[in-house]
Specification:
Layout: H1 2-17, H2 21-33, H3 35-42, H4 44-62, H5 66-88, H6 105-115, H7 117-137, H8 139-166, H9 174-201
């Protein structure tokens, strides 16, 4: 169960601190509306990801055949490799407020997350298979994976919102860049593992 939880920690932190549409919105809302607004955006995945996870699990459990599972694992490996490269080549973003319409920060965060293809790709190619594998060991490992992942995903974005709202130096620090690059390296390791699993399903290994 510890391995599954650690996997959730890596996935959650990587999704939480790697630059993307939702993190950008966390930064801009924190600068525009203060810490509270940024934190409401950070909490958006807790509202939007439930249906995405459920649909992905239903689709994956209806998939029959090791060839399809192998292909999905390879797709997951490619996505992980892309995310790993993104993390390894990251530079500190500028913490500058971008213009945009005002309104509910939480609604904005939910809309951005629902329209972002990354959560769907992640749960179909990476998160869903990992969650199903954890469920085969029992409910506790599956819950541990979800709790660790979303705790780190939302928690890290809350920290960014607090840091940006209180001062604008967090995203421009060397520590932030080093953290994202270390997570990129960890995601690269997972990409290799997914590729190996996919090739095994296809009978290549």
């Amino acid at each position: 169960m510890l391995t599954v939880a650690l996997t959730g920690v890596v996935f959650g932190l990587a999704a939480g601190v790697t630059p993307g549409p939702l993190l950008t919105l966390v930064v801009t809302e924190s600068l525009r509306g203060g810490v509270g607004a940024g934190m409401r955006v950070a909490a958006a995945p807790l509202l939007t990801d439930g249906p995405i996870v459920l649909v992905s699990i239903v689709l994956l459990t209806r998939v029959d055949g090791t060839a399809v599972l192998g292909a999905l694992a390879l797709v997951g490996a490619v996505l992980l490799a892309y995310l790993a490269w993104d993390g390894l080549t990251v530079a500190a973003p500028e913490a500058v407020a971008a213009p945009g319409p005002r309104g509910s920060a939480l609604a904005k965060g939910a809309a951005v997350n629902l329209l972002n293809p990354h959560p769907y790709l992640f749960w179909l190619g990476i998160g869903g298979p990992t969650l199903l594998a954890a469920w085969e060991e029992g409910p506790a490992p599956a819950v541990a994976f979800l709790a660790a992942m979303y705790g780190c995903l939302v928690g890290s974005k809350l920290v960014v919102a607090w840091g940006v709202g209180k001062g604008r130096r967090l995203l421009q620090s060397r520590g932030y860049v080093y953290l994202v690059r270390a997570l990129g390296l960890a995601l690269g390791v997972f990409a290799v593992r997914f590729a190996r699993d996919g090739l095994e399903h296809l009978g290549v290994l």
